[in-house]
Design brief:
By secondary structure, the protein is an alpha+beta fold. The protein has three domains: 14-68, no CATH class; 72-162, no CATH class; 169-223. The chain is 33% helix and 25% strand. It is built from seven helices and nine strands, in the order H-H-H-E-H-H-E-E-E-E-E-E-H-H-E-E. It has helices spanning 14-30, 37-47, 53-68, 76-83, 105-117, 194-200, 205-208; strands at residues 72-74, 122-128, 131-136, 143-148, 158-162, 169-176, 183-191, 209-215, 218-223. The strands form two sheets. A five-stranded mixed beta sheet has the order 1-5-3-2-4. It has a four-stranded mixed beta sheet with strand order 7-6-9-8. Strand 8 and strand 9 (218-223) form a beta hairpin. The longest helix has 17 residues, at 14-30.
Length: 231
């Protein structure tokens, strides 16, 4: 059995895996080889690097669970357009283009009142590791301010860039497991180059980087292991 590439399942669903099996059936039939659909499914699993169809189906299901647990990365401008934040009516000089609510006093009391009725309409701007981001929900650790939106979040997991340099790219940092050859997302960072992000993450990219996959405006960086830079 060949070992599946750590990113091989990224675009695979059970539906298109079954479509692959159907294509195998048609191809073999065109070459005068008749195989039952069940065998074509097994062949599809093998072609994708698994022992059989059950192995592929299980891996796809696990991938879908992991994807559902990842924060949805979104640009700040897209966040404004999608969820339409409320202007802070208690402070005409509020931060974040007038959308920010303070973390104490009357503003915080108002945020808590909204949260009690519509928890998915409350967001927190959080600071950490040289950048800041907006997450859905009412958070307390490293909070900068709160935002209240007209439209509710569609789930609890969001990672909205806020406070990094304009033009920075989103980098998804993953660690490669040498035994399973699967990658695990450990962090999302922002920067202008791969080298800058890996330096911020304190990783010796000259030796430990395992791969970079470009995805539009974002990059997935896979490293072999977390290892301090030799400064």
């Amino acid at each position: 059995m060949t070992t599946p590439h750590p990113l091989q399942l990224k675009y695979l669903t059970e539906k298109n895996a079954k479509a692959l099996a159907s294509s195998i059936t048609k191809f073999l039939k065109g070459n005068s080889i008749a195989v039952p659909h069940a065998l074509a499914l097994e062949l599809a699993g093998s072609l994708c690097g698994f022992a059989d169809w059950h192995g592929l189906k299980t891996a796809i299901a696990q991938k879908e669970i992991e994807e559902a647990q990842k924060p949805k990365v979104m640009k700040y401008e897209d966040f404004l357009a999608s969820f339409r934040p409320l202007q802070n009516h208690l402070d005409s000089n509020a931060t974040a283009d007038g959308f920010g609510f303070n973390t104490s006093g009357a503003e915080f009391n108002f945020v808590k009142e909204v949260y009690a009725k519509n928890p998915l309409c409350v967001w927190t701007c959080i600071e950490g590791e040289g950048t800041s981001w907006i997450a859905s929900g009412l958070h307390h650790v490293n909070r900068l301010f709160y935002i209240i939106t007209n439209k509710p979040a569609k789930g609890p997991l969001y990672d909205i860039a806020y406070g990094h340099d304009e033009g920075d790219l989103c980098f998804e940092l993953s660690v490669l497991n040498p035994e399973t050859h699967q990658s695990e997302v450990i962090d999302t960072k922002y920067g202008s180059t791969v080298e800058e992000v890996l330096e911020l993450a304190n990783i010796d990219y000259t030796e430990e980087i395992a791969g970079i996959v470009e995805e539009g405006q974002s990059r997935v960086i896979i490293v072999k292991q977390l290892k301090p830079c030799p400064h």
